[in-house]
Amino acid sequence: MPSSLEGYVLTDRAIDSLKRIVGRFSETEGNRAWTLTSVYGTGKSAFAHYLSALVAPANHPMRKKASAIAEVGLGTESDDYQLLEENLPQQGFLRAVATGTREPISQTIVRALINGAESFWKSKKGNKPDVYRELVDIQIEISEGRIFSNQEALNLVKKVRKVAKTGIFLVLDELGKNLEYAAYQGGTEDLYLLQQLIELPEQKETPIYVLGILHQAFAEYGQRLATVERNEWAKIQGRFEDIPFTESAGQMMRLIARAIDHSQTEPIACALNSYAQEWSTQMQNTIESEEFSQEIISGVYPLHPLSAFVLPILCRRYAQNDRSLFTFLTSAEPYSFKRFLDEVSVDSDILPTLKLDQVYDYFIEAAGMGLASRPNLQRWVEIQDLIADAKHLDRDYVRTLKTIGILNLVTVTGELRATRNLVPLALCDLPSGETENDTEYWDQIIEQLLQKNLITHRRQLNELRLWQGSDFNVDSELSAYLEKEQSNLVTLLSSLQPLNPLVAQRHSYKTGTLGYFECHYLDGSFDLTQLSCSNSDCDGLVGYWLDPEMPTEIPANTADGKPLIILGTKKLEVLRLRSREYAALKKIQSSAPELVTDGVARREVRYRVQEAEQLLNDTLNQAFNIADNPNLCWVQGEISPMDRVTDFNAKLSEVCDRAYPQTPILWNELINRRQLTSQGAKARRELLEAMIERSDEEKLGLKWEEQDKHLEKF
User: Fold this and answer.
1) Contact in structure between 292 and 283 (CB atoms under 8 Å)
2) How far is C-alpha 251 from the geometric centre of its chain's CA atoms?
3) Cis status of the peptide bond prior to 302, with omega within 30 of 0
4) pTM exceeds 0.90
5) CB 558, CB 532: distance < 8 Å
6) Considering only 39-48, 400-409, 590-599, which range has the smallest mean pLDDT?
7) For 22, how many CA atoms within 13 A lie in the half-sphere containing its CB?
8) Cα-trace Rg, the chain
9) H or E element: which one contains 96?
10) Which residues have a Cβ under 8 Å from the Cβ of 302 and sit 6 or more positions away?
11) Backbone φ and ψ of 220, nearest 5°
12) Alpha helix (H) residue ranges in 518-639
């Protein structure tokens, strides 16, 4: 509907993005895929909606409305407007738009094609093409749970393009949800469809363009992947031209101001006006590249001007999907903006402000931001550890460290670096020195921190710094270790994540006899006919098969006559990659000599090892998940489909019931065990002695109380 475009304004960022995308429409070679990246609330989806309207057929109401907005925003005589006129096709594109969810990318693309076909052919007269009717049927199949493969989705794109006889403009809003799904499910296979789409042979009359909307950099969604997998993601990311959809700091501060309710500021209007005027003058002298008007500064109050300036930058570089700028402004989490409003009151003419040290508390301490951002992990680790170690110091020392730490995380160059001038300003409510803790006071704190060697001053850059950095490159060392690691997967997993026995729960409860299965990793190097249990006490063996080819014949029992169960996996390559990375990181942690003297690198490696271990555990759970691999279980030589883990647990008991039908029911855990307890052994000895020595006496000469006590031990 054209009304959905009402009120849309072309900002500088939107105009620049339009030129970069639409400018490619007239080129037969070059980039045909883009990602728009920025935090929540910056207008990415609104821009994508406007752009999709702009590429509709020339007579479409949405195209007319979008063109009218361009006329006003660009001016009909401008070069930018002429670029649109020259490059936008009259016949328009088939606009395939869908919002991603945590599902395969193929599924989202198929949904986008359905939406695009509905819009494209709905208004056309005459019979609808066969592909349109096919898409209608597919929509029903999707609602019934059908999942489309990459090849099916790709074939469908080719078919739609051929029949529509025009280009396809594919818009994937919330593409990050698909990337999260791909990362969780194990890697690059799912995303390979994007690369295939982009690399389809160029056809001048029917090009395919792809636009993805992201809240953080493409690579950030793959941080839970192994290094090799992240490299594959990087190749796919390289097919996209990334457009940071971020407005200037001044525009972002205006956006923050609109999100803050100022209806209760009337009682402090005079003080607020004086406050804004003083800070406006100070900030324009301190950060000359940005506009700090009185209107902006009063609009972002009670955020300190530097907090409002730094927040969007911090979110853009470190924010996770659920930890955005507006989450900070609206949530009631500890150290959030809303919590500040609830806890602080105005008791004098000096207006309190939310400063950078509280920003640190929220984004680093409460929200855990930074750990998910690998590019600056060493810096993040060192800053957080140093501040944590300084918690015993006076509160103002710690506040100063947090302020410097936030500025170090944001930049080490430019006007926002932690200079001797900027840090005291960030800690003051007013720059004039009218408060108790003025800039001179904070200068003294900084000097004392320098004397304590808790911070350093890089005089050449006039920058205060908490972090020293490290000469140890973990990624390059990891690559070297990965090249050396040639162990097979069975050996790796057996040493890294040995398997625990599995108990046949129902059988054990029913009979009172513990029934359990040994668990081992197996591959094609094992002769299953010669396989034996390592412990004669176990009741069977469960083999976790780590080979792409299943054995041609699986025996019912092991060589020593115990039931044999084999579990297969569909995520073998992902499991191999993550096992090798975890093993390599463990070796680096235990043997790299540089870590002995380099505390920063040592802490980073420790984080990486913990992260890799968790990732490997998650992958193992997925790889052998019965629900995900229902047809990859062989019970005593026969394939046994299962839908749930409970089915597998029940099958263990069923196998024990069948293999050991004469198991006596003996509900006494003291004697129904492979080895008697010391109490049970004593009771047995005393009873046997009584039977031999006092067999002619009533009740073996045992008094009732004593007899009862001994019997209870059994």
Assistant:
1) yes
2) 29
3) yes
4) no
5) yes
6) 39-48
7) 28
8) 34
9) strand 94-99
10) 340, 341, 344, 351, 352, 353, 354
11) -65, -30
12) 572-591, 599-623
What's at 648, amino acid-wise? Answer: F
Question: Hey, which residues does 94 pair with through a beta bridge?
Answer: 168
Q: Taking a C-beta distance cutoff of 8 angstroms, is the pair 249, 309 a contact?
A: yes
pLDDT at 453: 84
- Residue type at position 479: S
- Residue 368: Cβ within 10 Å count: 11
CB 408 within 8 A of CB 465: yes
Asked if 145 contacts 73 with a C-beta cutoff of 8 angstroms, the reply is no
DSSP character at residue 485:
-
Percent of the chain with pLDDT over 70: 90
> What phi, psi does 419 have (nearest 5°)?
-85, 165
Using DSSP bridges, classify how beta strands 502-503 and 633-635 pair: parallel, antiparallel or unpaired.
Answer: unpaired
Report cis status (omega within 30 of 0) of the bond before 563.
no
Tell me how crowded residue 413 is: count the other CB atoms within 10 A of its CB: 8
CB of 226 within 8 A of CB of 182?
no
Strand partners, 333: none
Q: Are strands 638-639 and 94-99 parallel, antiparallel or unpaired?
A: unpaired
Query: Strand 638-639 vs strand 633-635: parallel, antiparallel, or unpaired?
Result: antiparallel
User: Any idea what DSSP says for residue 361?
Assistant: I
Q: Which pLDDT does position 377 carry in this prediction? A: 62
Whole-number Å distance between alpha carbons of 522 and 641: 20
Residue 521: pLDDT over 90: yes
CA angle (645 as vertex; 639, 646 as ends), nearest 5: 100
**For residues 436 and 233, what is the distance between their CA atoms, to the nearest angstrom?**
53
How confident is the model at residue 470, as a pLDDT?
67
Looking at residue 307, its amino acid is S
Closest CA to 637 of 517, 550, 570, 572: 550
H or E element at residue 173: strand 168-173
Amino acid 34 reads W
Residue whose entry in the numeric block shows the structure tokens 């296979």 = 189
Q: Please, are residues 137 and 156 in contact by the beta-carbon 8 Å criterion?
A: no
CA atoms within 13 A on the CB side of 240: 25
Report d(CA 73, CA 11) in Å as an integer. Answer: 8
35: pLDDT strictly greater than 70? yes
The residues, any chain, with a CB within 8 Å of residue 173's CB and separated by 6 or more, are: 45, 48, 97, 98, 99, 100, 213
Q: Is 204 exposed, middle or buried (0-12, 13-18, 19+ CB in 10 A)?
A: exposed
Q: Of 228 and 338, which is predicted with more confidence?
A: 338
Instruction: Report the distance separating Cα 140 and Cα 137, nearest Å.
Output: 5
Dihedral pair phi/psi, residue 82, rounded to 5°: -65, -35
With contact defined as beta carbons under 8 Å apart, do 518 and 538 qualify?
A: yes
- Model confidence band, residue 697 (pLDDT cutoffs 50, 70, 90): confident
Q: DSSP state, 684? A: H
The Cα angle at residue 641 between residues 640 and 642, in degrees rounded to 5: 115
**Predicted local distance difference test score (pLDDT) of residue 416:** 82
Q: How far apart are CA 433 and CA 444, in angstroms?
A: 14
Which amino acid is residue 326, in one-letter code? F
Helices and strands, number each (H, E), in the chain: 29, 13
Neighbours of 137 (CB within 10 A): 9
